[in-house]
Amino acid sequence: MHLKLKSLALATGVVLLIGMQPAVFATPATAGESELSSLIAKKAAILESLHKKAKKALVNSAQDKVFPNYFHAAHGHRHEAKAKIEQVTLAVQSNFHVEEMCLIDPSGPEITRIVGSVIAPDEELSPDESGAIFFAPGFAKAPRRVHLSPPYMSPDAHKWVLAYTTPVVVDDEKKAILHYEHGLDVFQNALKGGAYILAVSEDGYVISDSRKSLNIILNNDNSEELAGYFQTLEQSEGAGLS
Question: In this structure, are 189 and 144 located in the same domain?
């Protein structure tokens, strides 16, 4: 993953913004320049590795022969192939502990979905996911490429997540998108240790803070706005950017 870096300064430390995706790191101002550079590089590498593994796993899954088998089958004879797709997605969920994983038709309906390790029955599949934050960008991606979404409240996992989405291509045609969600706690756990580290969304909300646990579970008021769960970078630091 190519990283575009930009440095900012806080009264309490230095912040490094990485690209447009959620990844900002802050360290105490008391750290020496060499120590600071080393820590930033280490934490950036951890996040980059996490994203790279998640993208690779999703792309590899989308190349499985179960997908051509499903789309080559006549519409009335896809049940067996669909069951095999569900087994593939269950295996991915088991290995990577994703919150939710689904296969979505270009017109919007879900073809398959798992949440945790539970397969959704046909009658519970969404009839239209075309408005989802990952839908259009996912279909716009080239084969074997992955779209990483901004954070959003998952209506299935009931927590804040990031979505990884890739097209499923059969006979040179995008037949569906395959996507899965990682809860923000994955990033919280990955960035623990050493000086404090913050991960900040594109629009400035702190979505991971190694100093404390952040609430990512759906609130009783059903708020799905970042402001209902997370502070801005300025609020978290108690100081504006200089």
Answer: no
